[in-house]
Amino acid sequence: EVQLQASGGGEVQPGGSLRLSCAASGFAFSDYTMSWFRQAPGEKPEWVSSIGRAGGTGIYADSVKGRFTTSRDNAKNTVTLEMNNLQPEDTAVYYCNYISRTWSSYWGQGTQVTVSS
Predict the structure, then answer these.
(1) Are 117 and 43 in contact (CB under 8 A)?
(2) Whole-Å CA distances, 21 to 53, 56, 102, 111, 117
(3) By three-state DSSP, how is residue 90 classified?
(4) Sign for the pseudo-dihedral over CA of 4, 22, 78, 104
(5) How many CB atoms within 10 Å of residue 23?
(6) CA-wise closest residue to 113 among 4, 6, 22, 12
(7) Helix, strand or coil for residue 98?
């Protein structure tokens, strides 16, 4: 059974930082690109970032470029999202995701990020 468990969310003030982690199991983690999405209340899910199978430099939505950094540890089956200079518009539930070879999209349990003064 595929499991994607995101953690590390919380409430911070504008300008603050958080580090999200996603623990994956039930599939060959190192064979897949991993992505982060977020969904604000009343909004559609928004793609945030993706990182390839071997790691390295991720790709980012313009809204987070330069502030967020994604990385992965294939030995630990984890993907992280380092978020700096958080702003109120970053408030959302954050999810990790991967798409299997059969084009099934898997979503984990999200983690709430709230940026508020």
Answers:
(1) no
(2) 17, 17, 25, 9, 24
(3) helix
(4) positive
(5) 16
(6) 12
(7) strand
What residue type is assigned to position 46 of the chain?
E
- 8 Å CB contact between 95 and 3: no
CA distances from 89 to 29, 53, 101, 103 (A): 31, 29, 33, 30
Token code pair at residue 75: 């030995």
Kindly give the confidence (pLDDT) of every residue in the chain, 117 residues in length, as a single tens digit, with 9 standing for 90 and above.
Answer: 999 999 999 999 999 999 999 999 999 999 999 999 999 999 999 999 999 999 989 999 999 999 999 999 999 999 999 999 999 999 999 999 999 999 999 998 899 999 999
CA angle 35, 85, 44 (to 5 degrees): 45
Please give the Cα distance from 3 to 103 (Å, whole number): 17
- For residues 95 and 6, the answer to whether their CB atoms sit within 8 Å is yes
**Single-letter code of the amino acid located at 50:** S
